[in-house]
Prior knowledge:
The protein is an alpha/beta fold. It has seven helices and four strands. The protein has a four-stranded parallel β-sheet, covered by helices on one side. Strand 1 (about 10-15), helix 1 (about 20-30) and strand 2 form a beta-alpha-beta unit. The chain is globular.
Amino acid sequence: MVPCAWPPGRVLDLTRLLPGPLAGKLLADLGFPVLKVEPPRGDPLRDWALEAYRFLNGKKEILTLDLKRREDRERFLALVPEAAILLEANRPGVMERLGLGPEVLLGINPAWSMPGFGATRMPQTPATTSPTWRRLGFSGAFPGGPSSSPTWPGPMPWPLRP
């Protein structure tokens, strides 16, 4: 058996709001060092639900970068070779427009596998979140079905704002 170092490397977390930061939190709970890269305006969850933001990101190191600026993109790209995992949840095409598409990132870190969800597996749609998909009927494992409206699995821990 080949020995395996755990954790195998840093997680770069470019996500915002709830689903992506939750994935990053779970990886941090498993012992991965997680670097959350936030835009200068920060994660909107910080304004909407500060306690939820703290819960999801408390174990993460926070780095503010404006990936639209060449200098900040270069700083981000310098982090890629040593990273084990990239979490990102942008709309299809956003990473490419930033100059951070799969061709660029896999050229720097060929050990990554991309994409796991998004541009090639779901219909390209406007920006959305999990509650939006559920409201549209893409509830997956949640109660409800073709003949009934999807239902929430339980109370949300904070209010959702439109």
